[in-house]
């Protein structure tokens, strides 16, 4: 243990006693600031009283013969005018030895330009000694030519034949030995430290820092910042940065804003955002003013953690300080808003950013485009895609992948593939994620052959399909009923060393259930557990749905209890599956009990939950109970969907409550929802029975405009009406439509 370690250990006790004395202080930040000031003051006093002096420079003296030669060379150098040095010194070349260099430098050291020229001349003849090398570095630093000193050191330490471990102590010894008489500028050790850091000799850089403490010198904060920055890129870099920051703080380094920004970034990378925020708040107490990078880093940390409220508060604090957000700040805000599904608010931030003169970059547009695609608003995403190209920003594969994902989710795989081809034409290389996104889109669209073609293309490009790629393909095969092919694909995955995950197994379980093979689905679930993968809520819900649809409600209920016993919580989808199963079997009372249990467990129902109950009460022609459930749903703040309105409209039409049905239809249209074909038919026939032909006719035309077609009875009614009106052309047109969509479809087994 060296004397500084002993000093630090002794003062830990003093820090503890200060904590006891100031235990009632208003702020822990002010306490830390007080202790830091006291500690550094004590350390400085200790260092000044114990610092070792630099050694005197005592070179060996020249002989009388050497002295004469050195005098001649020195005088020749000083008296030369514009002649080239090699011509001026040619008479002395044969007699010149490496040890003459230092003695000549003693005579010409006040002429910096002459020192460099003579050193270069000497190096062309033979390598200078380490001592001479260090002397020239000292002279360069004293002449404030840091660039030259840096170059001389860098050339020495990047020599491929250099033995670093052997050379470091010798070089440092000579640099210390020549310091007092040749330069006396502490900056020389900063430059040496920086060179060691730049070439990656970090361990020796730290040894240099500790060595300088013996001489009462602390390297500059800029050098220490460079050291922290390079530490962050090493193995376990973040932990090393934080540990070194603490150690050097204790040794008296007065950190600046750039230092704190590095530490804040490291804390955020370790998901210690609260600690990073705490350090941000302490900076001013430690004598540093946070800048826009300090705030932006913390904002980014909270954004990734989804803490929107805290982000907004920090932005307010930042604006109070008069700091303007930069592009990094804006991107963090846009990111968290997109994550929260508030993409319109995120775009407003983009507009504010542009109005403040901050130019958005690729990352900002990529974040927003991804947000709109995930929200299903492809038109807005394309608008931003066009806008970024107008701004001369070139979309990268991240932007293209987001758009491809959005198009695939909307079922527009043809457009997605066109965009993919455009991306390749523009020279942007697709990665595994891009290919997998498009493969998944084609699988969901039932285009399995094209999906496998893309898989083959991906492999030819040297990209390795991952578990997500194979899961997408397996899921597509399952949905096509090709379960044997899906199983073969899983064997291929295992052979390639890929571990099947819960998503892959769930795709297969879902495929077996859809094909009616529940026994094999249960067997696969058991295989999952043997493989060490626990079935999740989705697995159980899929099986419950299959049992409900096959009328095995008792088995579905048993699975629910098994799921609960394993600590898995049912979701709204789980309850919806069971409620729908009970309702379809006519057990409405049991369905109501499940709804009540769902509410007691704190699971919020959605429109689908209530639709199952309303549908069965409506089928029973009990519109009073149907309306009661609808009102309960609205009272809970649950927004009705298109299915809700279609169920209610059909029910009221059958009960001849046409006023209520018409009111619901108008409400539905105002919300941008569309009537289903059977709801249209029910409304039209209901109005005809009430002899409200004008309303019936308008609805019939609306239905046809939307590409929907009525049944044979409905076409017959309107054919009679048009024939009686004498509109032969319209009658013939309607007759052709009736034949095409009713008679031909019926004969070919199609659905009207």
What labels would you give this structure?
752 residues, disordered C terminus, single chain, repeat, disordered N terminus, mainly alpha, 41 helices
Could you walk me through the main structural features you see in this protein, from its secondary elements to its overall organization?
The chain is mostly helical and 752 residues long. Among the domains are: 48 residues; 167 residues, no CATH class; 65 residues, no CATH class; 44 residues. Keywords: Repeat. Pfam families: PPR, PPR_1, PPR_2. One of its GO terms (cellular component) is mitochondrion.
In short:
With 752 residues, this protein is mainly alpha-helical. It is built from 41 helices and no strands.
Helical content class: over 70%
Shape designation? elongated
Span of the ends, CA to CA: 91 Å
| Beta content | under 5%
Mean pLDDT: 84
Main β-sheet: number of strands, strand sense, barrel status? none
InterPro entries: Mito_RNA_Proc_CCM1 (IPR051114), PPR_rpt (IPR002885), TPR-like_helical_dom_sf (IPR011990)
Protein name: Pentacotripeptide-repeat region of PRORP domain-containing protein
GO biological process, one term: mitochondrion organization
Keywords: Repeat
């Amino acid at each position: 243990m060296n004397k500084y370690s002993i000093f630090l250990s002794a003062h830990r006790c003093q820090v503890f006693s200060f904590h006891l004395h100031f235990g009632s202080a208003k702020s822990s930040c002010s306490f830390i600031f007080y202790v830091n000031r006291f500690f550094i003051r004590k350390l400085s006093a200790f260092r000044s009283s114990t610092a070792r002096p630099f050694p005197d420079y005592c070179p060996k003296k020249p002989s009388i013969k050497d002295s004469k030669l050195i005098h001649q060379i020195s005088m020749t150098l000083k008296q030369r005018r514009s002649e080239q040095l090699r011509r001026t010194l040619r008479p002395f070349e044969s007699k010149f030895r490496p040890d003459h260099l230092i003695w000549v430098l003693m005579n010409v050291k006040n002429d910096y330009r002459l020192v460099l020229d003579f050193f270069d001349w000497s190096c062309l003849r033979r390598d200078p000694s380490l001592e001479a090398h260090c002397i020239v570095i000292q002279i360069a630093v004293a002449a404030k030519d840091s660039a030259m000193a840096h170059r001389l050191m860098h050339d020495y330490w990047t020599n491929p034949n250099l033995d670093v471990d052997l050379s470091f102590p010798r070089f440092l010894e000579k640099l210390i030995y020549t310091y007092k008489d040749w330069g006396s500028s502490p900056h020389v050790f900063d430059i040496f430290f920086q060179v060691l850091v730049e070439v990656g000799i970090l361990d020796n850089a730290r040894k240099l820092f500790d060595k300088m403490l013996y001489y009462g010198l602390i390297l500059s904060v800029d050098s220490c910042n460079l050291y922290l920055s390079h530490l962050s890129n090493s193995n376990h870099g973040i932990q090393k940065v934080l540990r070194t920051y603490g150690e050097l703080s204790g040794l008296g380094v007065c950190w600046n804003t750039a230092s704190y920004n590095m530490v804040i970034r490291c804390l955020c990378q370790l998901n210690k955002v609260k600690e990073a925020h705490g350090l941000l708040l302490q900076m001013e107490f430690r004598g540093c003013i946070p800048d826009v990078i300090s705030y932006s880093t913390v904002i980014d940390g909270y954004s990734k953690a989804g803490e929107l409220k805290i982000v907004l508060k920090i932005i307010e604090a930042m604006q109070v300080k008069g700091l303007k957000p930069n592009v990094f700040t804006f991107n963090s805000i846009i990111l968290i808003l997109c994550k929260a599904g508030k993409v319109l608010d995120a775009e407003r931030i983009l507009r504010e950013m542009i109005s403040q003169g901050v130019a958005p970059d690729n990352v900002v547009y990529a974040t927003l485009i991804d947000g709109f695609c995930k929200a299903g608003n492809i038109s807005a995403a394309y608008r931003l895609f066009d806008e970024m190209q107008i701004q001369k920003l070139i979309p990268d594969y991240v932007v293209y992948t987001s758009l491809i994902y959005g198009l695939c989710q909307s079922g527009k795989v043809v457009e997605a593939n066109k965009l993919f081809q455009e991306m390749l034409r523009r020279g942007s290389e697709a990665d595994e994620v891009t290919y997998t996104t498009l493969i998944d889109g084609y699988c969901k669209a039932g285009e399995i052959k094209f999906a496998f073609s893309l898989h083959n293309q991906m492999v030819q490009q040297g990209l390795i399909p991952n578990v997500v790629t194979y899961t997408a393909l397996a899921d597509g095969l399952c949905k096509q009923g090709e379960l044997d092919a899906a199983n073969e694909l899983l064997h291929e995955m295992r052979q390639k060393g890929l571990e099947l995950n819960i998503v892959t197994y769930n795709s297969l379980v879902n495929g077996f259930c859809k094909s009616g093979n529940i026994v094999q689905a249960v067997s696969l679930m058991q295989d999952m557990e043997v493989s060490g993968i626990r079935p999740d809520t989705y697995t159980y819900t899929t099986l419950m749905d299959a049992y409900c649809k096959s009328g095995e409600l008792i088995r579905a209920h048993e699975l629910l209890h098994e799921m609960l016993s394993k600590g898995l919580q049912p979701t709204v989808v789980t309850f919806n599956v069971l409620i729908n199963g009970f309702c379809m079997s006519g057990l409405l009372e049991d369905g109501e009990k499940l709804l009540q249990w769902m509410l007691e467990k704190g699971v919020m129902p959605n429109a689908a939950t209530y639709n199952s109950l309303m549908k069965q009460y409506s089928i029973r022609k009990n519109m009073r109970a149907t309306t009661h459930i609808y009102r309960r749903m609205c009272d809970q703040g649950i927004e009705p969907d298109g299915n809700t309105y279609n169920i209610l409209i059909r029910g009221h039409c059958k009960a001849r409550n046409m006023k209520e049905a018409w009111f619901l239809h108008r409400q539905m249209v105002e919300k941008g929802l569309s009537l289903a074909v059977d709801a249209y038919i029910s409304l039209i026939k209901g109005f005809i029975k009430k002899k409200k032909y004008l309303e019936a006719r308008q609805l019939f035309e609306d239905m046809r405009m939307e590409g929907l077609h009525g049944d044979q009875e409905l076409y017959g009614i309107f054919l009679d009406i048009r024939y009686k009106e004498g509109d032969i052309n319209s009658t013939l047109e309607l007759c052709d439509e009736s034949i095409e969509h009713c008679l031909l479809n019926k004969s070919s087994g199609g659905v009207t």
